[in-house]
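Q: What structure does this chain adopt?
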Amino acid sequence: MRLRPDITLDKLNARTAGTLPEFFGLTVLHIDERELLMRMQVQPQYLAPNGFLHAASVIALADTACGFATIAHLPEGAESFTTMELKANFLGTARDGAVDAVARGAHLGRNTQVWDATVTEVATGKTLALFRCTQMILWPKKTA
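A:
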């Protein structure tokens, strides 16, 4: 599956308006063949009560990066996608600064796509999480 020529950074970033990715301030910084880079600035409201980055904040970043990568690589004629499964392994955390997720396509099929994301702290390059998700491609319903 190739990167769709009609997908741009501006179009992807405009999709966040009024949604959870906008609340988290997620920004796509780079899109390429089978890869997408998204950034989140850590804010106090993204932390757990223990003062560390909440796991749900990391999932929001990683899942959105993989989702936007899926949008950019949808097969011609597909309508959309939905996440079927996701898994995350947490290896570290952050309290401030910026966090990146790099989504990379592991399988880009006609009916499913599998994306891996590595979440890192920008200042140190430290890996915070490894993430994998399976996306189901949604096709237009056939009318009788």
